[in-house]
């Protein structure tokens, strides 16, 4: 693990502890024992050095699908509400996710996706994919984040049905080999 300043480490675990005690959707999985950093090839924390604060964090999850050579970017993503005035997707995608994709490519991973448990309207999710595409292309040319229809089980050993955005690099389309439902009531 890369050395990080003590204040970043402390602030990160303070955020996890606060989330674990909250009523937010993230409370279930964003705890010290469920964040699962060991499943991440890289885990990125974007900081505001002047304020000694964390803007956002998330990682490249790779160990969950060993047969498929794919990674989930922005896994365990968190964006601080203290920075809601800045463009959320711009910072996460242009800095954290770019690093995650580059780290994955360096390790031979060539298929990436992101997912969300939030029940967003399709238009909102589609717009998020457009914004992600725009941000990624600033640093990695020829990338498209394509919203997939339906819901996918992104957790192999249990069930977690989520919307998925497929990240296509250099027009190399690929099949997402995850269990699929067209709607959550199936």
Describe the structure using short key phrases:
186 residues, alpha+beta, Aminopeptidase, 8-stranded mixed sheet, 8 strands, 26% helix, globular
Give the arrangement of secondary structure elements.
Elements: H1 6-20, E1 40-48, E2 53-61, E3 70-79, H2 88-106, E4 111-116, H3 122-136, E5 143-147, E6 151-153, E7 161-169, E8 180-181
Parallel strand pairs: 3-4
Antiparallel strand pairs: 1-2, 2-3, 4-7, 5-7, 6-7, 6-8
Structure in words:
- This protein is of the alpha+beta class and 186 residues long.
- The chain has helices spanning 6-20, 88-106, 122-136, and strands at residues 40-48, 53-61, 70-79, 111-116, 143-147, 151-153, 161-169, 180-181.
- Strands 1, 2, 3, 4, 5, 6, 7 and 8 form an 8-stranded mixed beta sheet that branches.
- Helix 2 (88-106) crosses helix 3 (122-136).
- The chain is globular.
- The N and C termini lie far apart (42 Å).
- The model has no long low-confidence stretch (mean pLDDT 86).
Number of domains: 1
Oligomeric state of the chains in view: single chain
- The CATH architecture: 3-Layer(aba) Sandwich
- Overall outline: globular
Mean pLDDT: 86
How many β-strands, per DSSP?
A: 8
CATH top level assignment:
Alpha Beta
Largest sheet: 8 strands, mixed
Order of helices and strands: HEEEHEHEEEE
Low-pLDDT segments: none
Question: Fraction of residues in helices?
Answer: 25-40%
User: DSSP helix count?
Assistant: 3
Summed up:
This protein is α+β, with helices and mostly antiparallel strands. It contains three helices and eight strands.
């Amino acid at each position: 693990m890369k050395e990080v300043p003590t204040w970043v480490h402390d602030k990160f675990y303070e955020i996890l502890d606060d989330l674990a005690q909250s009523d937010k959707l993230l409370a279930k999985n964003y705890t010290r024992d469920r964040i699962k950093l060991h499943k991440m090839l890289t885990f990125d924390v974007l900081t505001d050095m002047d304020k000694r604060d964390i803007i956002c964090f998330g990682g490249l999850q790779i160990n969950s699908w060993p047969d498929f050579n794919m990674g989930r970017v922005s896994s365990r993503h968190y964006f601080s509400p203290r920075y809601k005035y800045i463009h959320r997707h711009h910072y996460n995608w242009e800095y954290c996710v770019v690093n995650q994709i580059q780290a994955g490519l360096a390790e031979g991973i060539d298929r990436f996706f992101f997912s969300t448990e939030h029940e967003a309207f399709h238009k909102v999710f589609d717009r998020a994919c457009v914004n992600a595409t725009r941000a990624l292309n600033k640093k990695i040319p020829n990338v498209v984040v394509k919203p997939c229809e339906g819901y996918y089980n992104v957790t192999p050993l249990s069930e977690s049905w989520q919307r998925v955005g497929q990240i296509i690099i250099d027009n190399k389309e690929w099949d997402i080999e995850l269990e699929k439902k067209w709607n959550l009531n199936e």
